[in-house]
């Protein structure tokens, strides 16, 4: 930027020199500075790509904007394809063994659930999960727009092709209740709509009344949703996720991982000195 500004000043200076002191179009030094800044802005427009990214404030829970009045549908791990949902949910966009890694069929039948999980088993992953219609990875590499439109891309990047979207936390609001869940799959129907997920577009029409968010049975039960409903949602940072049932289960759950690490540290600290040496 400094180099571009210097070039702009030189260009402006050349104009002044060429026209002579008596013919200078600038009434004052302030006018000259304004003209130089205009040249700088024009030069920047020519050499810098124009990227449209979110411009909302970056503080606490208001860091990301709410997406409001979004048609929301319920999906579940192990769901078989139907007319309105042609893709089975035995695997996700990021996990070819999703159902196995979860621990089984996430039965949506309320009679087969208790405390937001199936009665038949304890999930090995967070039962509070969602899907949004964007995947940042294709064929093992990041999509070209991913570094430009994903607000946390730089901070979350670990390796080429390793999703920075998977596992992100969302707040989902219906009425006066708010649930929290992790982004674990892509859909409904699309995996390319970054303009909606990260910018200001509305969800595109689809077979489910233009649904723009899929939520798990646990989210449905906590919010008291119908199978098709209307909710608001926003991205949230891990530090902004309050206590609740979404913190309880899952090898992929930040809070479960942190709790296990704390327990392991206590075991090491409480172990006899002779055991530690081994």
From TrEMBL:
<keyword id="KW-0732">Signal</keyword>
<feature type="signal peptide">
    <location>
        <begin position="1"/>
        <end position="17"/>
    </location>
</feature>
<protein>
    <submittedName>
        <fullName>Uncharacterized protein</fullName>
    </submittedName>
</protein>
């Amino acid at each position: 930027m400094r180099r571009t500004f210097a070039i702009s000043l030189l260009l402006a200076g050349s104009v002044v020199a060429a026209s002579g002191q008596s013919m200078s179009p600038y009434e004052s030094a302030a006018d000259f500075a304004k003209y130089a800044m205009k040249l700088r802005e024009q030069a920047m427009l020519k050499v810098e790509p124009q990227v449209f990214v979110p411009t909302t404030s970056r503080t606490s829970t208001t860091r990301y904007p709410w997406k409001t009045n979004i048609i929301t549908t319920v999906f579940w791990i192990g769901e078989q394809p139907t007319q309105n949902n042609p893709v089975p949910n035995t695997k996700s966009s990021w996990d070819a063994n999703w159902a196995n890694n979860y621990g089984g069929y996430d039965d949506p039948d309320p009679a087969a659930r208790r405390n937001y999980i199936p009665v038949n088993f304890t999930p090995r992953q967070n039962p509070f999960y969602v899907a949004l219609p964007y995947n940042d990875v294709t064929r093992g590499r990041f999509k070209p727009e991913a570094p430009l439109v994903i607000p946390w891309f730089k901070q979350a990047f670990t390796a080429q092709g390793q999703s920075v979207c998977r596992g992100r936390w969302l707040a989902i609001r219906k009425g006066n209740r708010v649930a929290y869940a992790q982004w674990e799959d892509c859909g409904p129907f699309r995996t390319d709509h970054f303009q909606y997920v990260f910018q200001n577009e509305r969800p595109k029409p689809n077979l489910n009344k233009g649904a723009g968010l899929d939520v798990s049975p646990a989210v449905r039960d906590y919010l008291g949703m119908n199978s098709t409903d209307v909710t608001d949602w926003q991205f949230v940072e891990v530090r902004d996720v309050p206590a609740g049932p979404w913190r309880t289960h899952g090898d992929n759950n930040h809070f479960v991982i942190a709790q296990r690490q704390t327990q392991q540290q206590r075991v090491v600290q409480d172990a006899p000195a002779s055991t530690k040496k081994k």
